[in-house]
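look at this:
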Amino acid sequence: MLVWLTCQADPSFMELIWIPISVLGALMQAVRTAGQKSLNQRLSTMVTTYVRSIFGMPFLLVYLWAVKTGTGEPWPDFNWPFVLHSIGASVSQVAATVFLIQLFTLRNFVVGTTLTKTDVMMTALIGIPLFSEVITGSGWAAIALTVAGVIMISIARAGGKGFFVASESDGVPGLKSTIVGLASGLGFCLSYLFLREASLSLESGGFLMRAGCTVVAVTGLQVAGLGLWLGVREPHGLAAMFPDWRICSIIGFTSALGSICWFTAMTIQNASYVKAVGQVETIFTLIISHLYFREKLNAPEFVGIAVIVAGVLIFVL
């Protein structure tokens, strides 16, 4: 509630608050993705995808209750555009996560997540003609810099050969990895745009209330839809989650907190801007890879980090 109270006291604070919220969302997403990679070694891709929703839902419900109690605002007036956009966000987010987890069987942790970062440029290019995205010249510069930084890190990780590097499971050099990575990026891109439209379609309530209702609605649809699919196709997979309840709970909590951050930031600011700042996830991914997966860093990667930071600073300055 501190964010809400600060914005009420100083409306100008709203102009920049979405940036630290986006950075926190990126950190939580990096931690959650690392946990999913570890869990996917024991569970199927679909069950691993479901973990983030089913274990994250209790945290989201507590958060929405806290927002309702803390702000004292009435529930927004729900409408059909909200429902349709929430369904679009839910389906596209599940598809993107499935592709992302599949990437881990094709490439290492950093390169797998890096391939999905094409979502930033996709969000801008698709969002302008089809959604409510409006991007300024400096916004395009920031997006370009953050994407360039991610590409530099990817090339460094691939030994200077770029995205198209064969892995042991690729029949054609890098082709499957690239297609799956781009599909994941497109899925995430559509989920960002749909969720922003869903939140904006709620015509009443502050940004915390609208974002909270949206994140609960989108995640609730995933819990119901994917849970029904798994109940029919992989009933044994649902039971297989609970022996790993500790890591599942961590994934659920970090996913819930990350989703709260993304949904809140995108309620305030353009989805493409939020995801441009969210490119710092790549930096967090490098740190996690170094500390947890023992993947070493090199000088070109540090240059890429500097370029990403420069892109984020454009929004601050």
Summary: The chain has 15 helices and no strands. Residues 18-68+76-316 form one domain. Confidence is low (pLDDT under 50) at residues 161-173. The chain has one domain: 18-68+76-316.
